[in-house]
Task: structure prediction
Amino acid sequence: MMDKNRPRIGITMRIELETDRFYLSRHYSEAVEAAGGSPCHISLIPKQDYIASIVGELDGILLPGSDSDVDPVRYAAEPQRALGSVHPLKDETDLLVLDEVERRGLPLFAICFGMQVLNVHRGGTLIQDIATQMPEAIKHEQGVPRDRPSHRVRLQAGSTVASLANNESALVNSHHHQAIETVGRDLVATAWASDGLVEALEDTRPDQFALGVQWHPELGWNRDPFSQSLFERFIGEARQRTRRFSALHA
Result:
């Protein structure tokens, strides 16, 4: 029987410049579906009317990772030598989606690059390259196997991530060369690596669910209870919003 209560979750795609193809790792959609959501892919077309029409039909947004970096122009910084590639279509589309998330109060789950662009959207800044700007940092680009937990993060007591992990720390994978520098408005850091780098952000407003993690819970989610809990909480928030919206328009 079809589950009519499955919330529709928009996931922005990524672009392969060499082939002019939009793409998205299968793991994001599979994790959303397994947690009870219906994944819907959002093309990288940075037009406000298109984004508004798509997001208006959704119950939540997942911003995935990326193999490119947020343009430092967007947080008033000059490009460092080790800055990676920048894809304007991706930045512009994700930022328009975040505008709609704010306007509509949609639940948001932001992963790796997704957390970084969320922070920039809220006025925060980024460390453009960990290795050159923080040479004392631990290794944050672990390589393969990508789902292997490679370092521990400390979780803030009372935070969403701590409650979902049911612990004060967790083992996570790591695939990023950029990191949060200054935290944006209405966000608070709730997880840190041993070198002090921020590993999770949460919205401080009680009526807005926004959770960002620097690791990749979509990798190996089927074997990791903490990753499953992150997706289930996000889908639960989207489902609650769907029910509230339906009740208001009944």
